[in-house]
Amino acid sequence: MPAGFQSTLLLTVLLAIGLVFFLRAASKDRTTVVDVHSPRPALEVLSGLSDWLEQRGWSRDGGDADRQVLRFRGSVAASQPLAVLLSVLAAIGGTCFGLVLRQLAPQLSWWPLLLILLGPAAGSVYSRRAARTEALELQLLQEHNEAGITVRLRAHRDELIAIELELADSLQLSSDGSLLSSPI
């Protein structure tokens, strides 16, 4: 087997491995827990958080009065542009791999080019795995009459960042800042 084919085969296999890992990462669960503090009264903060979440499409899903927990549920849709991009990348990668296989094993005729069908499969896999129901949980940890309250939020990382950015001023929410400083 000529060196050019070996390197092309290696690069094509690496492309396929990268696509698989990208598909896994794109639909990975990124649930995070963060504690936020506010000097405002508990009722005002919890009411403000609940109203804001309902405006964003979250629905109440019960809670636990003994543990002081409120639960919300929301549906997350897959990104259609990302599904199309993944389909195109997988189709191109499948075609490249098919061409390399065709050159390495001419007896296979044109059958390896059917690997182009991996394109729609990749978009479909991403769409199924990324579209899911997410949960958000608010737990009142401490209620101080003069010092405010501390609430533990457990949700998708992006939703927690949105809460921190959009409600920090109106509800005077503050956290340790780890969500906004993390590169991932």
TrEMBL record:
InterPro entries according to UniProt: CCB1 (IPR021919)
Name of the protein in its database record: Cofactor assembly of complex C subunit B
PANTHER family in the cross-refs: PROTEIN COFACTOR ASSEMBLY OF COMPLEX C SUBUNIT B CCB1, CHLOROPLASTIC, PTHR35302
User: Which Pfam families does this one have?
Assistant: CCB1
Top-level taxon = Bacteria
Which segments cross the bilayer? 82-101, 108-126
Keywords carried by this UniProt record? Membrane, Transmembrane, Transmembrane helix
